[in-house]
Amino acid sequence: MEKVNSQALKYHLWASADILRGHIDAADYKNYIFGLLFLKRLSDVFDEEVERILHETGSKKIAYEDRDYHDFFVPKRARWDYLKSLTQNIGEAINKANDSLEEENPETLEGVLSAVDFNDKDRLPDHILSQLINHFSKIRLRNEDLEKPDILGDAYEYLIAQFASSAGKKGGEFYTPKEVVELLVDILDPKEGMRICDPACGSGGMLIQSVCHLQGKGQNPKNIALYGQEINVGTWAICKMNLLLHGLQSAKIRRADTLREPKLLTKGQLMQFDIVIANPPFSLKNWGYENAQNDPYKRFRFGIPPKGYGDYAFVQHMIAIANPKGRVGVVLPHGVLFRGGAEGKIRKGIVEEDLLEGVIGLPPKLFYGAGIPACLFIINRDKPKERRGKAFFLYGAGDYQEGKKQNKLRKEDIEKIVSAFGEYSTIDKYCRPVRINEIRENDHNLNITRYIDVTEQEENIDIQKTIDDLKKLKEEYKNIDRKVSGYLRELRYRV
User: Does the pTM exceed 0.90?
Assistant: First the structure.
């Protein structure tokens, strides 16, 4: 049997969206397609394990009923062959299949599959669900069928990106463009043995990229502890499935509002991490201003952000959960660099405590549904000696590949930024380290163009040469004029 390659799998999975088109909103495709994909994968791997166990033990009872022999135990009502045989009440059957999977595998799947309701016949009538099941039945997702172990996780990431693009503004709520994720992870440079947290983890891309970064550096990708929190139940479920399909079962992802109800705790105190990384919602309005007045975890020691701008609430939470040697990388709108009032006071506190390691300006239109300029804020609670008393400013807004809807960072753009940040040196019109004294003189305004001169130098004009050239042209014109007049006189004489 020919193995499934990455391109074929991506094409097949994306084609499933065509079945749903016109029945439900594009923003909701992901919930149903991801749910069925995950269900099909678990069922196929269970069948594969059953065949192996039967071959090894000869016992059907052990193969079909002994939970210890399976990574995920799939009960009869959740097996794909059973679901494929149904013609009526398919949505109800899928819901029951998901419930039973969660009951049998509570440690890893509790709440993950039941987050989506398939039993809505107005939106998902039986004939549509039957088409979807038949479509997924055309491709087998056992381990032995896949060309490489990681192609299912890659295909899942591809689908997330496609759905984010189709969903427009809503896409930005659960997906950060892969290139931005790669850039931020490369700057923070996670290493094996670290604890990494994304407190606004969306579909989990930053945590997965951290593992990929270790693999790329030849380090052990299993020797890392991943944590996250996500408020949206559907996005949380997608994140859990994404991590599981990438083989990251040990990741601990909590479901709740990070600012109002942080769930990653140890003995009632905030857990501490080596790296904290996130792309929180830009300028969140209803972020929990009232709760912050009496925050039991004392996260807002630089000041409470304004009611309508939650950016510095996330920043301060991230600083609070970074350990004494920890680093923070966060995507923020440009407004946080210069807005005054409470935000100006918070910004001043962060700068004066020498926590700010860098501010990196990004190109426009990188994010789904957000045309406003964005930047990366890099915090370091234990700066190297040579970087103390300074912050690094980099103007990266001019290097990108232009697209119709979204612009994109190219590989060379990412490498240029990472290299410049690593060297922490001055490049004309691009980047330089700035002493805190200079930032202080600018009233702690962090607008990048205050520190990086990005104006194009006008070409020097040689005024005398210009005058001489004009005189020369005038003389040439006189000569031409005399010749034309002579030709006209001659023509008149002949006439």
Answer: no
